[in-house]
Amino acid sequence: MKFDTPATTNPIDHLKVVGHPHDRIDGPLKTTGTAPYAYERHDVVAEPAYGYVLGAAIAKGRIARLDTSAAERAPGVIAVVTADNAGKLGKGNFNTARLLGGPEVEHYHQAIALVVAESFEQARSASTLVKVDYKAEPGVFDLRAARGSASPPEETAISGPPDTSVGSFASAFTEAPVTLDETYTTPDHSHAMMEPHATLAAWEGDALTVWTSNQMIAWATGDLAATLGIDRSKVRVVSPYIGGGFGGKLFLRADVLLAALGAKAAGRPVKVALQRPLIPNNTTHRPATIQRIRIGAERDGTITAIGHESWSGDLPGGGPETAVGQTRLLYAGANRMTAMRLAVLNLPEGNAMRAPGEAPGLMALEIAMDEMAEKLGMDPVEFRVRNDTQVDPEHPQRPFSSRPFVECLRLGAERFGWSRRDPRPARVREGNWLVGMGMAAAFRNNLLMKSGARVRLAGDGSLTVETDMTDIGTGSYTIIAQTAAEMTGLPIEKIAVHLGDSDYPVSAGSGGQFGANNATSGVFAACAKLREEVARRLGFNSEEAEFAGGQVRVGNRSVPIGEAAGEGEIVAEDAIEYGDLDKTYQQSTFGAHFVEAAVDVATGEARIRRMLAVCAAGRIINPKSARSQVIGAMTMGAGAALMEELAVDTRRGFFVNHDLAGYEVPVHADIPHQEVIFLDETDPISSPMKAKGVGELGICGVGAAVANALYNATGVRVRDYPITLDKYLDRLPDVA
Amino acid sequence: MTPFTFERAASPAQAAAAAAATPGAKFIAGGTNLLDLMKLQIETPTHLIDVNGLALDTIEPTQEGGLRIGALVSNTELASDARVRRDYALLSRALLAGASGQLRNKATTAGNLLQRTRCPYFYDTNQACNKRSPGSGCSAIEGFTRQLAVIGASDACIATHPSDMAVALRALDAEVETIHADGSGRRIPIAEFHRLPGDTPHVETVLEPGELITAVILPKPVGGRHVYRKVRDRASYAFALVSVGAIVQEDGSGRVALGGVAHKPWRVEEAEIELPRGARPTTERLLANARPTRDNAFKVTLVERTLGSILKQARG
Amino acid sequence: MQGQSHHDLSRRDLLAAGAATLAGSSAGSPANAAPASPGAAPASEARNEPSSAPTPGPVRMPVHLTVNGTTRDLEVDTRTTLLDALREHLSLTGTKKGCDHGQCGACTVIVDGVRINSCLTLAVMHEGAEVTTIEGLGTPGHMHEMQAAFVKHDGYQCGYCTPGQICSAVAVLEEIKAGIPSHVTQDLVSAPPLSEDELRERMSGNICRCGAYSNIVAAITEVAGSPA
């Protein structure tokens, strides 16, 4: 189904199932521990061998000698896989560094060996017997020091050009009566999903099946085939349950490749889970940024010049953190510039983490906007309202498909009680607590991706949906069932949803908050085809047929839908494909975050007291799971604001705090009650579902809202994330 | 994790004797720290002596009016004991500030005392560490030191002791009761139990090979307001940046001990004379010889401000 | 040396009770197994340092557990954690391995009425213990009220921390009932209140990276408020 003109009325608009806060259909499995994750597939393989990964001990250099003989002799060991014996390996499209290092080492904890043994205990024990001598080489590990060496990155579809410019930024900024020129920094972040990257691999002849934990089945299939140098048709990737991803499981990672290689070497199925202390350095992370923001405005708050530059680093061949992306679109301003610069760093591979670009970009931009509002003596909400734009400010001929940004700001301010905020910082005190409020804009683009699905209607009126779409906690199972139920008129209990298998039609997958809208649109397309076939078989005019209550009806004639399938089944497959509506229109999602925070006047401990997000993201297919997406993203953003940082050892080139004790993410006690309000809107330009993504919008801007609340509480402005107490303690009031 | 044999000890004396007689033996009680380190090949015992069956899990009054806490009393049981909550609130508070509910249910009194540092370089076997591998050097001192010691460190080691409980015990003047392989016992004042790193950071306590902790003795209650403040980056389930445990009497006198600043719970009795004068003079003496790094210099300020807050709370 | 005669064990499955290969004994230490001594490595020349000693074979021991009301007789490598015994030997994979180091809480189970991290305890340390896992609380068709409340309040997303959260939640309500104080309990001498602050502190040993905390607290609050 080609979607190239805005949607008109369609069966989804009935909203009998779609739009309702249905409990997740996978809930009973997940809450009873019966949903099987990759490492747990006792049902598909009886006695796998166990693999244990050895990571490189240096950041850059070569392996001078790698002696596996002692490990091979160790009890229970079946095989030791290294680059020496793995055969010729390629590299997938989505990997920067190789997944199995040696003799060259490209980053710390790059996998250099897999020890396969009869038991996990034996594999782990034998891994300590692998003897490795390295010849370390000097590397570049410090973004600040490497900033001067950074150059414009290659333009890609996602990042856009490295530089953009409209009007004359330099002169407009110089002439502006009120200006801000500040630099902000964000650190490296780890996805820290709860399920480690894990894979069970089994060969049958030259055909490979991997049960793994991956967000993008088709990417993993292609990259695994490319890395192993085998035909894609020989690879099956299965990933029905995924214990969190956040971008960290977008790509083929070492667990998959090593399990496959280990299974081949061992001659039997092998399972591998990356050990937690390996994950931060072995896998990808969100790269650190240095961001300079300049804003010039008239005294009435009209922005006349806005400039955003960002520096980040990655391994040779890697890409930038696209932290200036939102600044190209979010606020008006006649004169503007953005620039991205990329330095070569020999730290582990940087890549996408929840809302890549916007998450760190808004952490900086939305502090800058707060600072600018203060300089102007304006309310931060009003300052943003003043600079709203309904068109792409770099390409004014492109309108937004819908942009109720001001509505988000106004509704949020009203519901949060923003008018009670004292704009003068450090004025509100409750006992030992300094209390403040802050807000920020949320913004994230809506991405359109081709997405396919297959539906099977059985004679008993049950329907099975098959697509390689994944559910990484996002609610895909449920919203796909809701979509299929709405389209076929079947009760949701009659819908079975099968996901995450490369044998199924290729979907958008889970990433970039594009999953829900595109995958359900793909199911919409398949169901539309099914409706035609059902109508044809029942002798109905498909234009007139109504599908409701398990029946197909035209006029007075009504037939149970299952009758169309008879003794067999009706199979319909289609994909949603998009025209150029995302070029004609800028498609984005919008929101506003409001936060109340308190800081202990003596110790500087910060606590978030209240959080509210107002979101505009088109039709909300399931308000319950969508709300969960938003509160989860707000929680991750709170972590980014207050505690999350991969600490870089700039001498030895690695992330020091590489486990869940060292890399602190929010716990229950950090997170207060959170409120989410969705604006009631549809966006017919986005898709037949009239929905947009929402899974990343919630993290966009929330860190800055926390930062601005802390500033309002304390009067101390910190521009270096995370905002930990050591950065402002000495500027708090004297309490001695 | 190296293979190990495993036995369940029948009595404290038998356990101590077995440990002394068996090379590579270690006691295991809660196991929450030992197994963590064994999985990383940092601890490599070849024989484990499970002491959980020993009847060391009760809290009894002593003749001196204090409490004798069995070595195997869990952190949860100790923090919840009515006598501890009433008379040694500092200890309850310190325990409850540590770890998580699950870990406190398993962790024991003796094991808590014997926790090893959480220095990330100690935990990463690719990095040089004098504590893990004597003589290999310390990769932490010039590295990421935000969490590490500001006082009492040496050129060989900048690690901190991670226990909250031990800070409270230090302020309470507890004693550690042990038994040797020959059945003889001793009592070690908590002040002498943990060592500073010096040139031998791998030697963390004064325990001798095979020596088994059987109990911790609390002297009779000293009254006063008990306050334990643990300051950390997140609100729970995290190690301290610094912690301050204090007992403040009505006349303003008192005791104070610190966590997160040194290789052992940090207390300087002479500094306590300054308590009635306030946090600044007290901290100046408590941390008189502090040698913080650029990354952790804030801890000195943080101790003073936290103590200031405690004294204010105690007065109020 | 008894423990070294079992190098070739390939089965990790249930063995009949009585198949003990090594009785606990104080003399049972492999004589040739010295602790690994990595020796002095210069800071600039990092290496993955193996132990130079020959590797002793695994030591296996029987252990008898009651898991979710059923007696299970196992023979395990002494190194096997309770978590791996459940997941790999008993195929009870509802209990999750998130970090294997006591840093996340995904492996939380209830042993003899008390919640613990099953990753930081050995199976052989639990001879005769009663273990309740998420599978023992309820099934998809007959959910425990806490499981049902998590579904109703969407107290999970990816589902991986969820069994641990639920086991913790069930135990937390018992801990409050038993009067066990927490870090946020204001008055140590009285019984702790059942408040959202108390629940948040007590649940903090269970990390949810998806960030379902707000909904989890709502689910627990509902169960706590409902008549038993």
TrEMBL record, chain A:
Q: Which SMART domains match?
A: Ald_Xan_dh_C
Q: Which InterPro entries match?
A: Ald_Oxase/Xan_DH_a/b, Ald_Oxase/Xan_DH_a/b_sf, Ald_Oxase/xanthine_DH-like, AldOxase/xan_DH_MoCoBD1, AldOxase/xan_DH_MoCoBD2, AldOxase/xan_DH_Mopterin-bd_sf, PaoC-like
Gene Ontology molecular function: any one: iron ion binding
Q: Which spans are transmembrane here?
A: none
Q: Where is the Aldehyde oxidase/xanthine dehydrogenase a/b hammerhead domain?
A: 32-138
What the entry lists under SUPFAM superfamilies is as follows: CO dehydrogenase molybdoprotein N-domain-like, Molybdenum cofactor-binding domain
**Top-level taxon:** Bacteria
User: Protein name, please?
Assistant: Xanthine dehydrogenase family protein molybdopterin-binding subunit
Phylogenetic placement of the source organism: Bacteria, Pseudomonadati, Pseudomonadota, Alphaproteobacteria, Hyphomicrobiales
Automatic annotation (TrEMBL), chain B:
Q: Which residues form the FAD-binding PCMH-type domain?
A: 1-223
Q: Does the keyword Flavoprotein apply?
A: yes
Query: InterPro entries, per this entry?
Result: CO_DH_flav_C, CO_DH_flav_C_dom_sf, Diverse_Substr_Oxidored, FAD-bd_PCMH, FAD-bd_PCMH-like_sf, FAD-bd_PCMH_sub1, FAD-bd_PCMH_sub2, Mopterin_DH_FAD-bd
Q: Which UniProt keywords apply?
A: FAD, Flavoprotein
Among the Pfam families in the record, one is: FAD_binding_5
Any GO MF annotation of the entry: oxidoreductase activity
Q: Which domain of life is it from?
A: Bacteria
State the name under which the record lists this protein: Xanthine dehydrogenase family protein subunit M
Automatic annotation (TrEMBL), chain C:
Alphabetically, the GO molecular function entries are: 2 iron, 2 sulfur cluster binding; carboxylate reductase activity; metal ion binding
- The UniProt record lists the EC number as 1.2.99.6
Q: Is-annotated flag, keyword Metal-binding?
A: yes
* Main location class: periplasm
According to the entry, every stretch annotated as the 2Fe-2S ferredoxin-type domain falls at 61-137
Question: What top-level class of enzyme does the UniProt entry assign?
Answer: oxidoreductase
Q: Which key words tag this protein in UniProt?
A: 2Fe-2S, Iron, Iron-sulfur, Metal-binding, Oxidoreductase, Periplasm, Signal
InterPro entries in UniProt: 2Fe-2S-bd, 2Fe-2S-bd_dom_sf, 2Fe-2S_ferredoxin-like_sf, 2Fe-2S_ferredoxin-type, 2Fe2S_fd_BS, Aldehyde_Oxdr_Iron-Sulfur, Beta-grasp_dom_sf, TAT_signal
Q: Where is the composition biased (Low complexity)?
A: 21-44
Q: Which GO terms describe its cellular component?
A: periplasmic space
A Pfam family cross-referenced in the UniProt record is: Fer2_2
* Disordered as annotated region, ranges: 21-62
Q: Where in the cell is it found?
A: Periplasm
The reaction(s) catalysed by this protein are: an aldehyde + A + H2O = a carboxylate + AH2 + H(+)
Quaternary structure note: Heterotrimer composed of PaoA, PaoB and PaoC.
Quote the PANTHER family the UniProt record gives. Answer: ALDEHYDE OXIDOREDUCTASE IRON-SULFUR-BINDING SUBUNIT PAOA, OXIDOREDUCTASE, IRON-SULPHUR BINDING SUBUNIT-RELATED-RELATED
**What function is annotated for this protein?**
Oxidizes aldehydes to the corresponding carboxylic acids with a preference for aromatic aldehydes. It might play a role in the detoxification of aldehydes to avoid cell damage.
**Protein name per its UniProtKB record:** Aldehyde oxidoreductase iron-sulfur-binding subunit PaoA
Its source organism is: Ancylobacter mangrovi
Q: What is the lineage of its organism?
A: Bacteria, Pseudomonadati, Pseudomonadota, Alphaproteobacteria, Hyphomicrobiales
